[in-house]
Design a protein that fits this description.
about 140 residues, about 25% helix, disordered N terminus, 10 strands, globular, about 30% strand, five-stranded mixed sheet
Length: about 140
């Protein structure tokens, strides 16, 4: 009991290891909050069907946690999307009711990031802060 009262008597904020631990824990939490605020990406996304009949268009400037994909950006536009999971990833077959192959030839939806058309599944392309995503219909 004597040592227990000594421990209680010795607890001052300057010398108490648990107080120092609490301060460190608080600093770590504050740092994590700052990091998580920095761990977001804001992108610009647009949908354009002017090469078809122009009936589908939209856009948004969503903010996501890091790791968001081109597919996430499309979903942020609030348009109806028909998509399927394939062995290569998510394949978008229609946006806003405008489906692939509604026109002769190889018509359908493609996307670009920062002006570069990417021929991969939209859920495999991770976005960076400031990226410009464009979904467009080709015919």
């Amino acid at each position: 009991e004597g040592s227990a009262s000594w421990v209680v008597a010795s607890r001052s904020p300057a010398r108490d290891p648990s107080a120092a631990g609490a301060a460190t824990k608080y600093a770590d939490t504050a740092m994590r909050a700052t990091e998580s605020a920095a761990a977001t990406v804001t992108v610009s996304v647009s949908v354009d069907s002017s090469a078809a009949d122009g009936r589908v268009s939209g856009g948004a400037n969503p903010t996501f946690e890091q790791g968001a994909t081109v597919y996430d950006a499309l979903m942020a536009c609030g348009l109806s999307v028909n998509a399927s999971s394939t062995p290569l990833g998510i394949y978008v077959s229609a946006i806003g009711g405008l489906a692939e192959k509604e026109y002769p030839g190889e018509s359908g939806w493609k996307f670009s990031v920062n002006g570069e058309v990417i021929m991969r599944a939209c859920d495999s392309v991770v976005l960076q802060d400031g990226d410009v995503v464009r979904w467009f219909y080709v015919r």
